[in-house]
Specification:
alpha/beta, Mannitol-specific EII, Chain A, three-stranded antiparallel β-sheet, Arc Repressor Mutant, subunit A, five-stranded mixed β-sheet
């Protein structure tokens, strides 16, 4: 099947072929909610761009897993990256000044540019907004994971994570309708699953008290240390299984 344009509407049969799943599985995922879909009459329809974004989030480990990620054995060198290799205290903005979705994106992108993590701020702002227009990055519980729809190795200097915090919270079109307080910006350089700490990040944030600890940390250094400590706990739990 030809993939077609990114805004194309797919039927259940076409999506099943695209995902290499049976139609019953596609219908189950649509009915249960994780698969972005709309029901027209008694027929499900799927926008390809939203499906690709959902798959991207699945592979990155930033949403509830329904699809097993495929690990590229040829990129084993990249699979050794941990949080500290892509994140630093300077990557934390503990008190965002912005109060709207657009200005938050601009403030975060500006900081990425000042740190030399990206080569073109205008491109990054546009790429982040493009993703937001397809599907909001705010997953609920006060957290958003911003990233681009497509990878651009020429614009991203190296893989990185940046975190902005808003005490007041910002309306970021979160799935639960609540304000968003923590904005994780994921600077992705490649299409492969190259940052295993993204999966750990989701695990870290669901632990009891994890979000409160990040919101209550007094400064950038404390926020950084809180995340590093949470990563150690998750790593220890994984090694004990």
């Amino acid at each position: 099947m030809s993939e077609g344009p990114p805004d194309r509407l797919l039927t259940v049969k076409e999506l099943a072929a695209y995902l290499r799943l049976n139609e019953r599985t596609v219908l189950k995922l649509a009915a249960e909610g994780p698969l972005p879909a709309v029901k027209v009459g008694n027929q499900w329809r799927f926008r390809k761009a939203m499906i690709d974004t959902w798959l991207d989030d699945q592979m990155l480990g930033i949403s509830r897993p329904y699809v097993e990620p495929v690990v590229n054995a040829g990129s084993s060198g990249m699979l050794l990256l941990d949080l500290a290799s892509c994140f630093a205290p300077t990557h934390v903005l503990p008190a965002l000044a912005a109060g709207t979705k657009t200005t938050v994106v601009d403030e975060l992108a500006t900081h990425c540019y000042r740190l030399g993590l990206i080569r073109d701020k205008t491109w990054f702002v546009g790429a982040l907004i493009e993703r937001e227009n397809v599907m909001p990055s705010a997953t609920g519980n006060g957290v958003a994971f911003l990233h681009t729809l497509r990878r651009n190795p020429e614009q991203v200097v190296r893989p990185f994570m940046l975190l902005g915090r808003s005490a007041e919270g910002v309306d970021f079109d979160a799935l639960d309708g609540e304000p968003t307080h923590l904005f994780f910006v994921l600077g992705l350089k490649y299409n492969e699953l190259h940052l295993p700490w993204l999966t750990k990040l989701a695990q870290m944030l669901v632990r009891p008290g994890a979000l409160d600890a990040l919101l209550e940390a007094p400064d950038a250094e404390a926020i950084y240390e809180t995340l590093i400590a949470a990563e150690r706990v998750v790593a220890q739990g994984t090694s004990m299984r």
